[in-house]
Amino acid sequence: MGNLDRQFRLLLVIPAVVILMLQVQSALAQDDDYTYAGVDLNYSSLDALGVTYNPITVRAKLGVVLLPDIVPLFAFETQFGVDIADDTNTINGQPVSLGINYYVGFYARASYEFADVASVYGLLGLSAAQLYGNVILLGGDTETGLSFGLGATFNLPFDIDGSIEVMQLVNGDYFDIYMASIGASYKF
Predict the structure, then answer these.
(1) What whole-number distance in Å separates Cα of residue 3 and Cα of residue 177?
(2) Checking DSSP bridges between strand 94-114 and strand 142-156, what pairing results, if any?
(3) Where are the domains of the chain?
(4) How does pLDDT run across 126-171, given as a tens digit for each residue?
């Protein structure tokens, strides 16, 4: 898939995700910061074909605390990411490019706050990822499975949180994906 196809896909996907997030936020709007939406930039480590690739992705996320009066630091989060830069390595003298076509995940998120300044959190859930490239992967280009990660958020002005996160996105039979992310979220 060429750069033009990837840019076109981004132009279609990002507005659709933003519109979906706004619609969900409107339906679940609460006055106590129990819904959040954000965007992250992800540096990925993709292990496939016995080689490590480092594609870069952008991710949209939406989280909702469903029981704020009972467990205010427990949320459900969904994420959707797409590739913005693939990576190329040489295997047997031939250039091999691989990237992450898309990934989607659904997670439970448990947080611990530090005096309304910052919080740390853990994620546990399920993810699916699909690769693309100029090779055919044995076993297919899609993997699903258990995901987990750790992160931290830092409160900024205007209901915005800055965040950093590390995650094992997919640990599959044919490829593994790990990510380090930096991003921002808005609390509704």
Answers:
(1) 22
(2) unpaired
(3) 3-187
(4) 998 999 888 766 666 888 889 999 999 999 998 899 999 999 999 8
Evaluate whether 40 touches 82 at the Cβ level (below 8 Å): no
Q: Which two tokens stand for residue 110?
A: 């448990």
pTM above 0.85, yes or no: no
Here the tokens at position 65 are: 């605390």
CATH 1.20.1070.10 fits 3-187, yes or no: no
**Could you tell me if 148 and 138 are in contact, meaning their C-beta atoms sit under 8 angstroms apart?**
no
Query: Which residue intervals of the chain are DSSP H helices?
Result: 3-28
Identity of the amino acid at 173:
D
Cα separation, 38 vs 46, in Å, equals: 23
> What's the rounded Cα separation, in Å, for the pair 133 and 30?
43
Angle at 183 (CA atoms; ends 180, 188), nearest 5 degrees: 135
